[in-house]
Automatic annotation (TrEMBL):
Transmembrane stretches, start-end: none
The name this protein goes by in its record: Mos1 transposase HTH domain-containing protein
Matches recorded under Gene3D superfamilies: Ribonuclease H-like superfamily/Ribonuclease H
InterPro entries referenced in this protein's UniProt entry, alphabetically: RNaseH_sf, Transposase-MT_Hybrid
A GO MF term: nucleic acid binding
Organism: Cryptotermes secundus
Superkingdom of the organism of origin: Eukaryota
Length: 196
């Protein structure tokens, strides 16, 4: 019912056809060309969203120097993103995304079958992995797991270190946060790489 033309609109179309109109498509007409919702702006917005999934429409508008309305059109109707838990995610996964998800899940399953509980203890889900953390992981030559798009990032777990750190620092008093940071950094430097 909602997709039917109103009675008035039907009469208008009948009049147009009686006057010689032969097509139902819009007639070509002159209009101002789009200047904000363009391919380069869409590409740039997509790159910025991939870089920071928490970015806001206002921030994108300021970075792209276009209006908030144009950014909203670009993000929602051209890139087909929507906000979920304050993060931009695509409305639906494309076939390629589904294939990557399937491959990642299959790889994770094989890892679990090979290593069992030891594999589960070696990962922790996080919201974000900082650039410096990634660089450190590459330097240490740790194996990074592929994972499905828009799932929390996976990283080697350091939870087992907390118990050891806690027992080594037990009874110590610190005057400020800098003293704590320095002590923890020294503690990490003294440990051998086999601990990690």
């Amino acid at each position: 019912m909602g997709k039917c033309l109103s009675r008035t609109r039907v009469f208008e179309w009948c009049k147009c056809f009686r006057e010689g109109r032969a097509r139902v498509e819009n007639e070509p007409h002159d209009r101002r060309p789009r200047t904000s919702v363009t391919e380069p702006n869409s590409d740039c917005a997509d790159a910025l969203i991939h870089e920071n999934r928490h970015i806001t429409i206002k921030e994108l508008g300021a970075m792209l120097s276009i209006s908030v309305g144009s950014v909203e059109d670009t993000v929602k109707y051209h890139l087909h993103y929507r906000k979920v838990n304050a993060r931009w995610v695509p409305r639906t996964l494309m076939d390629m995304n589904k294939m990557v998800c399937m491959q990642a899940a299959s790889h994770l399953l094989h890892q679990f079958e090979d290593k069992g509980d030891a594999f589960l203890k070696s990962i922790v889900t996080t919201d974000e992995i900082a650039k410096t953390t990634m660089e450190t992981l590459w330097k240490l030559k740790w194996n990074l797991l592929t994972h499905p798009l828009y799932s929390p990032d996976l990283a080697p777990s350091d939870f087992y270190l907390f118990r050891r750190l806690k027992s080594d620092l037990q009874g110590m008093r610190f005057v400020d946060n800098e003293a704590i940071i320095q002590t923890v950094q020294e503690w990490i430097r003294r440990k051998t790489t086999s601990l990690f």
